[in-house]
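ok here's the first one, seq then struct tokens
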Amino acid sequence: MTPIFTKLAAPIVGPYSQAILTPHAIYCSGQLPADSSGNLSTSSSMASKTAACIKNLSVILTEAGSSLEKIVKVQIFLTDMKDFTKMNEEYEKWIRHKPARSCVAVKELPKGASIEIECVALP
């Protein structure tokens, strides 16, 4: 197992890795809509928040030698399911090959975020 870290993605906010590379998969930790300095998006747009999460996943996967196109499973956490449609509209612009996915509503997320996205990808 190899921990993956890149300064191009939002920094971690706890005792974990941005991702773990194994011979068979890359397990990416949940990404918040934050920039590489860790500043949470101030946009009210769910589209821009979704894009920020996916951009973070993209640079982490690139650091691990993979890409968004190799994602096999996505897990999305929303604090309000009213955002589901707007999230989906942005999500499908980035991830077009339709990997397995689940989306759940949660009471709250770290740093007061309204969305968090994690994934598993092939190396």
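and now the second one, same deal
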Amino acid sequence: MRCILAPLALASVASAFVASAFVASRPRTKNPSACTIMAASSSTSSDAAPKTCPRTGNPLPNLPIPEPLLSLTPGTWAHDTMSRRLNEEILQRTYEENEEAFNSPPFAKALERFHALRAELDDASNTPLRYLQFDRDTDGRPAAAVDREEKEWREILRPYIEKEDTWLSAPWLVAEFYAYRRLMEALGYHDKANPATYLYDPFLVAKRAGLETSVGSAENMLGKVTSLPKTKEGAALAAAFALWGNKMDLSIWPADAENSSTDVFAKILHAADDNLLHDDTEALTEHCETLRAKGGGNVDIIVDNAGFELVTDLALADHLVASGIAKVVTFQLKSHPTFVSDALEKDLRETVEHYAALSPDKYPNAQAAGVRWQQYLDEGKWICNENDFWVQPSPMWEMPEPLRSDMKERCELAFVKGDANYRRLLGDRYWDYSAPFGDVVGCYFPCPVCALRTLKAEVGCGMEKEQVERAKGLDKEWMTNGRFGVVQVGFGADR
């Protein structure tokens, strides 16, 4: 099987979890990881010997690894999220959207565990984290997969559990991902002995609402994607669509796009440049031209949200294949529901099926796109890959085997989408905003990487100081409201 394992009514939770103001005081963690300790004690010189993580053997960022974001400080978005929003808003809405199922007899034990999880979050400042619980007798996955996930989560949680860290004193990103994995545990997501709860997606209502509302926004954009030229300008515009979505100004799009000069497309790109705080589009398109010249390469898209954002990812993948940049596009997807709107393989396939089934009279561009996308899947030009790493809080410099070796040996360009994935690129740590992306991410990532990110959390790097000051002057919430973005490229370790 080519696919391995198999906005919007509700905004993405990754977007909802951002802070509303930059935290002036950066609390120090009492649980630095082994990788962090080594990096902090290493020379910052680019001439220094390559640093590697003692746990994984992977390359580390060239710069000293700073402190992670915590949830201890009242008044910060992290504290509000873990002490209130996650329970009172996210889990409460989850209950309301699944109330009938949750109160049915097959969900009795699941509901009991769900309430127990909420009780922990009600007292988040005093409740210590615990290890996840696994039942190999009822888990529907292969035993090796269960053993592997349990080992990975124990390694992630051990330093915090040994220190008796609470939901608030553990790093924010660890606590967030852990909360959603605890929700899967509570609901019996992997319990094949209970058909009602097995693989039950508690966020399906939100995802389907996002899918249905995406069509109107996508129809116009998808009509433009098919007319993109097979040039650097076309690749740049496809990336811009994936970054900005329906924020792109299409009013100046030429009526006869296929026969228009590149100057017209440059004008459209320039109109989208104003809110970019760093732009490596030239490096991206040069690399795309290299792939096209060799007959196409293997390109990955590390997907974030379902709904309209996923549609823009599919549009990007559509252009990559149609223009000859990619022979194959692999979508890296979540292995279980998390952060409400994050996309699994089933969400991607449902999106394709939904678009292919639209009325060609009402939505001709979207329907034609759905048909094309289904052909790509059928022909193996698009591949789906779910992996537990994408639902875990580890920084991406701790990417495990065999995923890392696969991406290093196979993947010739990886697009990283969304804010939660970007936070993991940076380890959700307080890097200097001007720290070069190449020294933070490009030096350790297993293959050439392009981050397409609209800013929705208070972490970042690779942004020129003048641009940061400009953004601050224009918008006091510049780091959190998605107005500004970055296109950042790194060429990977050993490349």
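notes on #2: The longest helix spans residues 204-225. The radius of gyration is 22 Å.
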